[in-house]
């Protein structure tokens, strides 16, 4: 599991430490992955940011997409339930 952000690595390290994230953040500052996957974005303070989305990948293939992620505090339980129902 990992997170994806459009921020640079230094900003990501600060956020991961401040938020005590239990997973690494990957940088897509150039929006290459976001563009290739057509991930939803928004503009804030002259910066392009990613909207919350959860992708389930298996064998390098996107198997399921959770979007919109709302409310965000329920997403982890939804993902775990989906994984339990679709485990091979």
UniProtKB/TrEMBL annotation:
GO molecular function of the protein, one example?
A: oxidoreductase activity
Task: Indicate the segments forming the Redoxin domain, all copies.
Answer: 2-80
Return the Gene3D superfamilies for the record. Answer: Glutaredoxin (3.40.30.10)
Q: Which Pfam families match?
A: Redoxin
What is this protein identified as? Putative thiol-specific antioxidant related protein
Species whose genome carries this gene:
Deinococcus phoenicis
